Amino acid sequence: MRASNYESTGSDLFFVYFVRFFYYLNFSYESFRFLLVLISLFLIVFSSLIFVKYKKWMFIQEKTKLSDFFICIVLFFSTYMFLFEFFSIRLRGGLSLSFFYAFSVFFIVRKKSLLFYFFSILFLYMSFGTHLSTAITLFGFLTVPTILFLNLKFFSRVIGVRLYFSLAFWLSVLSGFSIVFGMIYFSSFRGEHLNSKLNFVRFLFMSVVPLLIYFFVDMKKINNSIQLYNCLLLEKNNNRKSLSGYSKEIWIYFVTNAYVGCAIALISFYSIGMLSTAGEAAIRVFTLSSVSSLLVLSLQKNKINFFWFFVIFSNSMFFFNTVFL
């Protein structure tokens, strides 16, 4: 393993020291890859156990439906493709993803212990120090919507539920434009040999089709959830459990908006020709949405979320086509 030859770009110092540490321990490249995957998967599993322990109400499920069998098959395939992509090919991205997932969980449960707060900051630094672009993208896909969600109750009482949701949507669009523009800008420094056009079919499946599903399939359910949440919030003696139940749907709405913002940005930049050399970079950014898909679908096992179901399945199929066909 030529770990000592890895040169830092200035934004991945943690990964540089990580690689060199195992180089000095005389690890082979195969052993290093195996250890990397082991650490990544341990972080995901351990963080998930913490999340389930302190947020049990988010995993309350209804009776199993017959359609769940089909959903499980597709999710198994999609999860396998996701794990194969990030823990066999995009190893540095996978490690950064694992640190970021751990950060997200420990940040959500930070009020349970001061130690959780400390670890959340540590994992965030490790994620950014491992692979900057992965961490920034996940910050836009997960952290921005979570911050909007955590401020929901306070600002809804101040400016009203509808206005807050409108502002949150446009903030998500702004975040999406920032991510996609940053992706285009920094991809120009990666070298001419990495320039590539975005395949039109991929463009459709990454942006146009998800937006059609969002506006024509999910919008009615979203409006109902917002209306019900508003009614519960205005009740003087509201049932906290009921409010929490709808909170899960609202968090999913904010996470969905984060992807929608990126999809709108992708269409905008594609239409003016700014993605003529950033196709590969766009694919790397949008495939990280599989993290959001897995989180949302794990919270909605009792019903199909068509939007996220389509996103992760299309990501998996394109990756399968690239690698195996």
TrEMBL record:
Keywords in alphabetical order: Membrane, Transmembrane, Transmembrane helix
Protein name listed in UniProt: Uncharacterized protein
Transmembrane segments: 35-54, 66-83, 89-109, 114-132, 138-155, 167-188, 200-217, 250-275, 281-299, 306-324
Leader sequence residues: none
